[in-house]
Structures are given as structure tokens and as C-alpha cells.
Write a structure and sequence with these properties.
Layout (H helix, E strand, L loop, with lengths): L1 H28 L17 H10 L13 H15 L2 H14 L7 H16 L1 H5 L9 H9 L1
Helix pairs in contact: 3-4, 3-5, 4-5, 5-7
């Protein structure tokens, strides 16, 4: 009997962490701020893509050529900060921006991913990974892995 209980205990010790990790991962992918792969935004977009996006949203008023989306302004500011200092500082600024302006939360993953890609360009994949933080569902690490 004692042997059977020990065997069951070992099985649970191996299986339970895997189940917990998988269920947590699935829960995170279901939250509204987690972007789907179709929401991925690139660091640089061609003018053709931008014009097709504007044409696909007829309800919105035409934007002037100088007007930029808040997430694009934030992305440029964060990448400049990353270039001047380091990815850790930029990720902290991203976290503060998400706290200050929750409407940007749906862009958080693409912003963190762009920071990851920019960090690889500046530091290389191995060194850039050291700056990884759990900001925006670890999208920074995903951006590093995409480029590395």
C-alpha cells in the first residue's frame, strides 16, 4: 500500500506542474490585452500598408499626414530610449505608460516585441535576452527570439 501511495505521489509531482503551467498559459492568451498574431505590428511599416489600413476603415475621419497614432509615438519614444540607455529602462517606461494610459494596453505586446527586436539589433540576441521582464506577457522575450 505504501509503495502505491508513493508511486501516485511521484506521478502527481511530475504531472501537476505541467498542468498548472499549461492552464496558466492558456488563461493568459484569453485576456483582452493579449494580441493575436494578426495584430502584430512591425517596427517599420510601408506606406502601402498604412494607406490600405486607412482605406479599410471608412468610418474614421481622414488623418492628416502629421497626425500619428499614440502607440506609434510611444514606440518611437521607447526605441529612442532603448538606443540612448538600455532595454531595461525602456521596458520600465513601457510599464509606466500602460499604467498611465490603459487605452494603450491592447498595443502593449506589439510595443514590447518591437523593443525586443530593437534590443537584438543593438546588443545581439544573447545579451538582449538578459533584459527580459514580464512586461506585456513576455513579448519582449518573444521579439528577441524572433530576431535571434
Amino acid at each position: 500500500m505504501n509503495h502505491a501511495a508513493r508511486r501516485i505521489g511521484r506521478s502527481l509531482a511530475l504531472v501537476l506542474p505541467v498542468v498548472l503551467v499549461l492552464s496558466g498559459t492558456l488563461a493568459v492568451t484569453r485576456v483582452p490585452w493579449a494580441a493575436s498574431p494578426s495584430d502584430t505590428q512591425l517596427l517599420t511599416a510601408s506606406s502601402h500598408e498604412a494607406s490600405s489600413r486607412e482605406a479599410s476603415t471608412p468610418a474614421s475621419p481622414p488623418a492628416s499626414s502629421t497626425e500619428r497614432a499614440p502607440q506609434d509615438v510611444l514606440r518611437d519614444r521607447l526605441i529612442a530610449e532603448l538606443q540612448e540607455q538600455d532595454p531595461g529602462v525602456a521596458l520600465s517606461s513601457l510599464q509606466r505608460a500602460m499604467t498611465r494610459k490603459p487605452s494603450l494596453a491592447r498595443h502593449c505586446t506589439s510595443l514590447a516585441r518591437a523593443l525586443g527586436k530593437a534590443a537584438v539589433h543593438k546588443y545581439g540576441a544573447q545579451r538582449a535576452q538578459r533584459f527580459s521582464r514580464p512586461v506585456c506577457d513576455t513579448s519582449f522575450a518573444y521579439g528577441v527570439a524572433q530576431m535571434g
